[in-house]
Design a protein that fits this description.
The protein is globular. The longest helix is centred in the last third of the chain and has 17 residues, at about 490-505. The chain has about 550 residues and is an alpha+beta fold. The protein has 17 helices and 20 strands. The chain has helices at about 60-70, 115-125, 145-150, 180, 195-200, 255-265, 275-280, 310-320, 320-330, 355-360, 360-365, 370-380, 400-410, 425-435, 455, 475-485, 490-505; strands spanning about 40-45, 75, 80-85, 85-90, 95-100, 160-165, 165-170, 215-220, 225-230, 245-250, 270, 285-290, 295-300, 390-395, 415-425, 440-445, 510-515, 515-520, 525, 545. The strands form six sheets. A five-stranded mixed β-sheet has the order 15-14-16-13-17. Strands 1-10-9-8 form a four-stranded mixed β-sheet, with helices on one face.
């Protein structure tokens, strides 16, 4: 997930109420102590762009879909999969065929029953190249995906079909270890074809031009306004367990404005920036979450000869004091990274150790200016370069500029290294990154699902997100092995990914800078949400307003 899906590239304090949301365990069935008025006031960083399941890609839009739609599964605490529309799942021994039995009692908000055909239609529509769905690639493991995307086969040939009104079959081209996790993501939610057909190009562009089968129905959104409501859906199958009646959203881009509104009790939750965190560190309402995303620097090995030298790349990494960046510059609870894959994302299937700790390579993230200077001298000599003049490209947001300036100062402590900053609007920066028009660039990635492959695949040779052109045959072999011969072997696959991460850090294919923190203020009357590191998930439907 590129940073844009979080609303801004950096991701720092941007995900609060605008972060991806996921359901979790319900609040206690004992309603004692709950207020009669079950309504909360929430902020979000940016506007909704669409309610179209096939086309939603930004954080705010995905948040609304998590609360207004119901998929096969929900994500609970610690990424635990919870049955939603699926009541039973059968997987073939080879891991390639899934059969889902669906509940019979969920309805669209117009009263029509949700069926297996709604999933078939939705997935075929998403993969159809004419739809231009940004997240269609998440369905790449489904049989015939590539042929459908390239236009060689019709969408109807995608490996998904209804075996009856309430039975869905999915055939994969090869085992996908994390397939069930994907099914809790909005791109895999159903769509009501009659509603899509009715509104055509206007589908999903307002709250009245959308179908809902989840806990809430969106209202008062005309497509561009900065306020809207989510109201409890009376047609939802599990409506008795939804305590919250209404969520009032408003766009609040500036953290200072958000905090003022919170202090005036006009918001029940808001996000904080680094200065605010430092000033409010003892406030009991403040909550900090770290995990699921990594902020990093890519080096363009295609464009700059010296960057192809391992010692030069290692020198650049070792010259950056990542601990100081997190603690003294950001000051918002962000952490120095252990590697490219973030902490708190996934665990060892046997020992339950954090993947980031299992795959830790000290030299890939450590600060050692003395050694960095020695490495840079040796690397420049080996590459035939006397002076290294680099441009560091970053977004033009205030926090990103601060981070870029800090990195510039650290890198210029190296011998014969000069760094110029280029801060650009997000879309311009992204376009230049994608086209390889940079020397160094600051990037952010947040997990779409809780599996290391979501990060590690990015740096594979030829991946569209591998804008710096890192290429290592041994690294590629570990990634490919995890997705092929070991895909159905949890422990072996896990070890493949650990080896891939270690190889990436040993070869310094990328420079991890820090793990962004999400820092929030929560009013004491609000309780019962669920947080997950993949996508910084929230479960607002399980909140309850206290007396």
């Amino acid at each position: 997930m590129r940073g844009k899906h979080f609303g801004i590239l950096l991701g720092i304090t941007a995900l609060v109420v605008g972060g991806l949301a996921a359901c979790g365990k319900t609040t206690t069935s004992n309603k004692t102590g709950l207020a009669a008025d079950q309504e909360v006031k929430l902020s979000t960083k940016s506007e909704v762009t669409t309610l179209d399941v096939s086309k939603a890609a930004d954080s705010t839009s995905l948040t609304q879909l998590y609360h207004t739609q119901e998929g096969l599964y929900r994500l609970g605490k610690n990424e635990k999969l919870i049955n939603a529309m699926a009541t039973k799942t059968t997987v073939s021994n080879n891991g390639k065929t899934y059969v889902f039995n669906l509940r019979h009692d969920n309805k669209w908000n117009d009263g029509k029953t949700v069926t297996a055909k709604d999933y078939v239609y939705s997935w075929q529509r998403t993969v159809n190249p004419k739809t231009a769905a940004e997240y269609a690639y998440l369905m790449a493991g489904i049989q015939n995906y590539s042929q459908v995307q390239s236009g060689k086969l019709a969408p109807s040939q995608l490996g998904v079909k209804a075996l009856g009104k309430y039975k869905l079959q999915v055939t994969l081209s090869k085992p996908v270890a994390y397939f069930k996790l994907l099914l809790a993501f909005p791109t895999f939610f159903p769509q009501e074809q009659s509603v899509v057909d009715k509104y055509g190009k206007d589908y999903g562009h307002s709250s009245d031009q959308t179908a809902y089968d989840g806990p809430f129905v969106m209202t008062k959104w005309q497509g561009t306004n900065q306020t809207w409501q989510l109201v409890k859906n009376t047609k939802f199958w599990d409506k008795k367990k939804i305590t919250l009646k209404k969520m009032n959203f408003q766009v609040v881009a500036d953290p200072s404005t958000g905090l003022n509104l919170y202090q005036q009790k006009k918001l029940d939750a808001t996000t904080l920036d680094g200065t605010q965190v430092a000033n409010l560190k003892n406030n009991k309402d403040m909550k900090t979450f770290v995990g699921g995303s990594t902020y990093y620097m890519q080096m363009n090995q295609k464009r700059i000869k010296a960057l192809r030298n391992l010692k030069v790349r290692q020198a650049l990494s070792m010259a950056i004091n990542k601990q100081q960046l997190a603690k003294s510059v950001l000051r918002d609870g962000s952490k120095a990274p252990l590697g490219f894959v973030s902490q708190n994302l996934t665990q060892n299937p046997k020992t339950k150790a954090d993947f980031a700790k299992d795959a830790y390579v000290k030299s890939g993230v450590t600060y050692d200016l003395k050694q960095a200077k020695q490495l840079m001298k040796a690397g420049l000599k080996a590459s035939g370069t006397k002076e290294l003049h680099l441009t560091l490209m970053a977004d033009d947001t205030s926090v990103t500029k601060t981070v870029a300036q800090y990195i510039q100062a650290d890198l210029e402590k190296l011998p014969n290294v000069k760094v110029t900053l280029s801060t650009l609007p997000y879309k311009t920066r992204l376009s230049r990154s994608n086209s390889g028009n940079f020397d160094l660039v600051l990037s952010n990635w947040g997990a779409d699902f809780a599996d290391p492959i979501n990060f590690l695949s990015l740096m594979s040779t030829g991946n569209t997100n591998n804008n710096g052109g890192f290429s290592d045959a041994q690294y590629d072999s570990y990634v490919k092995k995890s997705e092929n011969q070991d895909a159905n072997k949890p422990t072996a696959r896990y070890n493949d990914l650990v080896n891939a991460e270690k190889r990436l850090m040993t070869q310094q294919g990328v420079i991890p800078l820090y793990q962004p923190a999400t820092v929030e203020m929560w009013n004491s009357k609000v309780s019962g949400y669920v947080w997950n590191p993949a996508g910084m998930s929230r479960g607002y439907q399980w909140m309850a307003v206290q007396k």
